[in-house]
Amino acid sequence: MENDREEKPVRHFYEQEGFWFAVVVVAAVVALLVAFGGLVHVFGGKPGTTIIERVDTYYKLMLVLAGFVTFSTIVWRGLIAARQAETQLESTRLQREQIDRLSEQITATKENNLAQLLQKGSELIAEKYNPAHVTAGIATLRFVATAENGNFAVEAMNLLAEYLEREFGSGHGGKLFASANAALKAGEEKGRIAERDIVFSCEDEEITGYPDDQSNWHHVYGVRSLRYFYGDASSAHLLPDGRGAANAEYCYVTIGGGEVSIDDRFRRCDFSRVKVVRVAGDSISENSFRRCDFSNALIYATKIPDLRPGENFFSPSEPPRCGQQLNWPEFLLDATPTELFPF
Q1: Residue 259: left (phi > 0), alpha (psi -120 to 50), or beta?
Q2: CA-CA distance, 276 to 283, in Å (whole number)?
Q3: N or C: which end of the chain has fewer CB within 10 A?
Q4: Would you call 204 exposed, middle or buried from its count of C-beta atoms within 10 A (0-12, 13-18, 19+)?
Q5: Structure pTM?
Q6: What backbone torsions phi and psi does residue 273 show, to the nearest 5 degrees?
């Protein structure tokens, strides 16, 4: 480390405090000698000159010597002050280097600890027959995913996403699912996203063990993309804010209840008893609707199918809105829900 430091420049003799200290000492001695000689000359001088004249001569000489001594002293003290300042700066620089090295060591230690936690979390979450260990693994990975040092955050998010796809690929629910999904959400709120494209499907009941009406899909946070196939869900669980996530697609999914906005991310889905807020593109024809409320809905479609066979309706005082004049009773039942479905 010392070889890396800049070499101090060589100073000239007049820049060294020792030189000026010697000058001060010599000048002070000379001044004392001159003063002593002056006293002898003033009071024992030769006749023909007055004491005032002799005093005046030595007074001026003493002023010059005193000024030189003062100047030399100021220079000497200034060099001492400069050296002390340089020493203080050097000490401060060394302290800063020590602090920087200590910070690097602390950072390296933290990264090493995070790496160990990541490894431990991945081991615990794989123990599927030990729920307590899985819970501890999820909590450990959540800590890594939300740590201020985000060097291993994405890896932790990847492990959580893979766990959900592996263990809950055909149906959502339970404390472990909720904990893992909450951990992904916490990581997403920190700006961390798993580099995984997740697929959930319960198409084959014999393979998955989940019939379509028990999949209970939920929205999963913090992943690059989502695709849901078959199964069912309430809009409150599956669709954030009733719109669904921008990175998600829904195919052959039965969605019930709540308010929904539908676009081309929904394909061959079955909507049941939902309040339709908005329908875009051909999604009104590509999806099926049953007992859905289209009152005051925004419909952006060039062709609207007859939705009356599915008992879809609108309130007569709040017809749907679109870019063309339509006789809505030809497409929807014009009645209130209580009139259509009294029970």
Answers
A1: beta
A2: 12
A3: C
A4: exposed
A5: 0.68
A6: 55, 45
CA distance 315 to 335: 5
- Which residues have C-beta within 8 Å of that of residue 184, sequence separation ≥ 6? 145, 157, 160, 161, 164, 194, 220, 221, 222, 223
Helix 51-125 with 131-146: angle, nearest 10 deg: 150
Strand (E) or helix (H) holding 297: none
Cβ neighbours around 260 below 10 Å, total: 24
Beta pairing partners, 333: 313
Question: Splitting the chain (343 residues) into consecutive groups of 10 residues, what average pLDDT does each group show?
Answer: 51 61 69 64 57 64 71 73 78 75 65 85 91 93 89 93 93 92 94 94 57 73 94 85 81 91 92 92 90 92 89 90 86 76 54
Alpha carbons 268 and 276: distance in angstroms, whole number: 16
Residue 316, helix vs strand vs coil: coil
Question: Please, are residues 198 and 225 in contact by the beta-carbon 8 Å criterion?
Answer: yes
* Encoded tokens for 234: 């309430």
Q: CA–CA separation, 55 vs 195, rounded Å?
A: 97
Query: Could you tell me if residue 248 is left (phi over 0), alpha (psi between -120 and 50 degrees) or otherwise beta?
Result: beta
User: Cβ(134)–Cβ(125) under 8 Å?
Assistant: yes
Cβ-based neighbours of 151, under 8 Å, separated by 6 or more: 111, 114
Q: Which residues of 273-286 are buried (b: 16+ CB within 10 A; e: fewer)?
A: bbbbbbbbeebbee
Cα distance between residue 290 and residue 205, in whole Å: 24
Q: For residue 14, which amino acid is it?
A: Y
Residue 229 half-sphere exposure, CB side, CA atoms within 13 Å? 12
Place of tokens 């950072």: 107
What's 332's DSSP letter? S
